[in-house]
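Continuing from the previous page...

OK, I double-checked the sequence for Spore coat protein U domain-containing protein against my notes and this is the correct one:
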Amino acid sequence: MKKGLKLGAVAAVLLGAMSSQVYALDCDGSTTCALDTTSTGNFDITYIKGSLARIWGLSDLAMTDTHLAGAEKTQDICVFSNKAVDSNTYELEVTSANDFTLTDGTGGGAAAIAYKLKVEGIGSASGTLDETDAVGANKLVASDMEAGPLAQQPDPSLACANQNARISLWFTSAPSLSSGAYSDTITMLVTPQ
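Thanks. Re-ran it with the corrected sequence; updated structure tokens here:
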């Protein structure tokens, strides 16, 4: 009697295992992956890469008396945009905390030096942002800046090398000023187009 129970239990386990294999096929009504001597199925692989941008290589700029005579102060920077393989247009927004003037922090209008700012593409990049792109007193916006083909842009995971944009600053006049430290803060925003 005990042998019969054991054999019956083993048979029930085997039948249960075999029946679970038959029901494991899930083809969603497809004509592929049918139970036969061979079976075919397929699947898609999808990777979606979002639009990315990076601006780096920026450092503080110290103006000197030579710039009061109209000399430009320049800084080459890196801009990355991955919108396309061969054309990477981006919008550049530049905002000044002091309406594009250097101030000594006293709030007096006489203690200020107006300046001009320009950003242009260099190397394989192109486009120019300057005072003709003004949006109010403290903002410049250009939507036709070009970072260049992906293969020729700076690597966004490395330090700024192969710069593709140049910032230029110069004073518009040489006012009589008292001694002091005059400053402004510029914020730059890059958005892939």
